[in-house]
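Postdoc handover notes: sequence design on the structure in folder B. Input tokens:
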């Protein structure tokens, strides 16, 4: 039986990937057991009908589970960056996707950066408990090699992702002056540069629409948005929304704008392209490895973003469409974790 350890997984993007993995394991008839974060019990994982257990996401609970069940599984997949806290005699794979843990995140408060550093040290301490590491981009692989001193041959690049079929029938009509950025308000999502660029555009006489999905808990960001709306800018924050509402936003917007400073993959880039959006993306490794955008910009400079927007909106309709260049390798991912390797 395969153990999928997702105890520390609670992000929307990570949960989307886990659900996609779950559905494909089920299709292939692979018997799996899921270790899941209790925070998602009533919402995210309600449709998991395989064997599962929910724990409070603590190091103590995780270690206790492994000690009590170390002989219960034939293979282990750690789905949230951290190898098992004990050495196991079965093949262990670690799916690594949080690149923030391996970068110098100067845009985060010092307390958060210290926490990232401590987590990196923790992963370093237990790295030999994993036989293989799986990542979604070459950039992430290089970070593992340089920051965690993991051997290149131990790291496999196997991106996998689920995006809905293009243009699921809806009554939405694309607004040629509408932009969407589905994201939380975390510092690396870079809303301050985005909003500054929007203000600059407004001051130059442009009235583009901007649709955001920032939670109400991001009070400071919400206040900035409110002040810009009061000034006259067309910004609408939808808060946390479901997949159906997100599809409607993609289908009614001409552009996805993506200023994020750090991503392991950037799933919205592909979701938006599937829904016929043009993408204006940060000129960073994650976007270069996954898509060909309509326009790129320096994500540290509002003026660069402003110019990219004007460049994209001045093009003829079909002059430069965005394209997905990454390939969904979910079958190869499952073949790897389902194949015997040396422990």
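Designed sequence:
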């Amino acid at each position: 039986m395969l153990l999928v350890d997702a105890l520390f997984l609670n992000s929307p993007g990570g949960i989307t990937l886990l659900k996609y993995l779950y559905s494909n394991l089920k299709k292939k008839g692979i018997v799996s057991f899921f270790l899941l974060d209790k925070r998602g019990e009533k919402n995210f994982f309600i449709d998991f009908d395989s064997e599962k257990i929910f724990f409070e996401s603590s190091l103590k609970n995780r270690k206790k589970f492994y000690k009590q069940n170390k002989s219960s599984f034939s293979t282990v997949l750690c789905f949230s960056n951290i190898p098992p806290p004990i050495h196991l005699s079965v093949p262990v794979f670690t799916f690594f996707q949080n690149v923030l843990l391996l970068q110098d995140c100067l845009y985060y408060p010092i307390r958060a950066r210290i926490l990232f550093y401590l987590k990196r040290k923790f992963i370093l301490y237990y790295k030999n408990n994993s036989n293989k590491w799986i990542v979604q981009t070459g950039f992430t692989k290089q970070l593992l090699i340089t920051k965690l001193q993991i051997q290149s041959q131990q790291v496999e690049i196997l991106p996998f992702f689920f995006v809905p079929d293009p243009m699921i029938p809806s009554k939405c009509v694309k607004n040629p002056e509408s932009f969407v950025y589905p994201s939380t308000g975390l510092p690396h999502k870079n809303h301050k540069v985005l909003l500054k660029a929007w203000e600059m555009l407004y001051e130059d006489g442009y009235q583009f629409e901007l649709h955001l999905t920032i939670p109400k808990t991001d009070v400071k960001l919400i206040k900035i948005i409110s002040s810009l709306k009061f000034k006259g800018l067309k910004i609408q924050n939808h808060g946390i929304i479901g997949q159906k509402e997100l599809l409607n936003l993609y289908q009614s917007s001409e552009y996805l704008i993506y200023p994020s400073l750090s991503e392991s993959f950037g799933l919205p880039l592909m979701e938006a392209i599937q829904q016929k959006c043009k993408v204006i993306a940060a000129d960073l490794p994650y976007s270069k490895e996954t898509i060909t955008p309509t326009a790129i910009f320096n994500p540290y400079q509002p003026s660069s973003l402003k110019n990219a927007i004007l460049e994209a909106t001045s093009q003829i309709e079909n002059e430069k469409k965005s394209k997905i260049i990454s390939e969904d390798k979910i079958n190869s991912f499952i073949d790897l974790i389902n194949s015997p390797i040396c422990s």
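Context for whoever picks this up: The domain at 2-162+328-337 is CATH 3.40.50.2000 (Rossmann fold). Don't rerun without checking with the PI first.
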